[in-house]
Amino acid sequence: MAIQPFPRTGARPAPRVGPDRVLASRRRLLRRDSLLIASWVSVAIVIALFLADDVAAGFVSVGQTLTSLGIAAGLVGTDLLLVMLLLTARLPVIDRAYGHDRAVALHRKLGKPVLYLLLSHTGLLIAGYGMTEGINPVSEVLTLFLTVPDMPLAFMGLGLLLAVVVTSVVAVQRRFPYEAWLGIHLLAYLAVLAALPHQFSNGAVFAPGTWQRLYWLVFYLAVTGSILVFRIAVPLARSARYRLVVSGVRRAGTDAVTITMSGAGLESLSVHAGQFFQWRFLSADLWWHAHPFSLSAAPSAGVLEITVRGLGSGTRKLLTVRPGTKVVVEGPYGIFSKTVRTSERLVMVGAGIGVAPIRSLLEEADFAPGDATVILRAGRVEELYLLAEIDELCRSRGAYLYLETGPRPSDRAHWLPAASADRGFSLLSYAPALASSDAYVCGPVQWSAQVMAQARAAGVPAEAIHHERFSW
Amino acid sequence: MRARAVIIASAASAGIILLGWQAGTGADQVHVGAAAVVGSPSLPGGSGNTGSAGSSGSSGSSGNADDGGSGAPETAAPSAAPGPTTGSAASGQGVNAAVSGTFKGTSASTRYGAVQVQVTIAAGTIKDVTALQLTDRDQRSAQISNYAAPVLRSQVLAAQSAAVQSISGATATSEGYLTSLQAALDAAHFQTDQSFSLNSRG
Q: Nearest residue on chain A to B176, judged by CA atoms?
């Protein structure tokens, strides 16, 4: 498409946005809405099927009412738990609509409500059963535990789930090692499995010949299938097919290297600059953990490139990876790429090693000279990773490049260093045409939030702000 | 976009839940008729048409049970006082020989619903046990009841007492059934050889 360069004045009318981009953006929003509606409707169906079965007998006494509420809480909790599992099952449709980050954020948001629902399921049923049978809650727990089939497993499942949610909250706050968090998190699958038998043997959920049975059977199978296919089969198949091997390692600044990998027939892989993979390097000391890294160069000619900074103990070991090492990947994931663009203009803001996906975007994105602005932020000049390469790309593509280094303001939260923040600079100072641009932001969570808030304030629509967090 | 999605989602959800409610209350009316069938004494035990979702009127025996854990699964049902419905109890000379008639047991509350049976005795022999009400908390409980009741009935007829094995997988129903049956037998002053022991926790 023919694009004319615009002078950098905010006064010009908004550039013509390609109709295909508007359509794509609208389609993505529609997909998002459909997924949101689908998840609400799934909860509604669960409640409706329960009411259809139970409303007659369910609310005739206090005990029965508690029992009914308990069953409903369990059903809704389980439904949302399955939604949570779907959100992290790497389903392509979810990844394309929300992007991996946002899907994980939603997953995290649901964690506590689901736990509370399942805890109240347990509490309400103990109270309700106890009242109906005329025994106290403690005896009821013992009765359930000792005489009702599959209940010990169900209690174990609840315990595991409690452990998963609590450690997730703690781990995110205290920055546990990723592997420790992941190990505990995998227990969630065990928790779901442990809770399954009591739903068969005691619940009405799987009563033969009911709509509930059909619904839950389909939902459970769909979730299990998605996990097996998209988290296990597809990554294994891809890794086997492309047989990635480290082909080069070069320094990219203090404590950072750029790793180049090549593979057979990579051209057929649908991947865009800015997307990320989970990388697993098969060397003696690295094979047991996978790390998420964004591509730092546009994928081309059978080569994928990432830039890694030695932040943690695991990533520091990555700095020593040798050419010839085999690589297993999951991905590509994420929508921090050209696929979500809505306008002709680009503003790309990166902090620390977050400049890596910015570099690949800059390389791949279509824009006319003058229509792109790159802002790099670092504590010190040495921490401006990939600076020489980004500088070179900006020169050849005609993008504006701003470097902002120095300590944060001590008195307030601001994404700029103190010197620039104190002079009253904002995102708009660097990109006057911000309102009619797409903003791509990659950096630490708090920092990104401040950049995005300024973009919102400057009038950038929410669907034109794209964000990737580089911490897990 | 998002606001619109939330509105559509809420509207759709509300509609679906209302539909479910409608189906549930509609089904209740159908099941009241079914409950009448359950109550008919001519019902041969285990014909399979017992125990559909309860009419709200006949299962109202719970809610009085917050007595801090007496541990007894048997709660007195206000609506179903034990006593001979028809026929006459023994006046005292023989052991069971003179016992004849139909006797209703108390309604026993279980976590899956109330259970009440009625026993028919002729000349000292248990001739039939009819389920007046079975666990019907939901379709699953109703299914379990439909499966367990005939088995329990034939066991009771064979053993001529309430001291029989509870059905595995239907412990709550079994306990309720046998408790109600024992109450009916007590009301009939029907004595069994074995001392009655409620088959515990299987």
A: A133
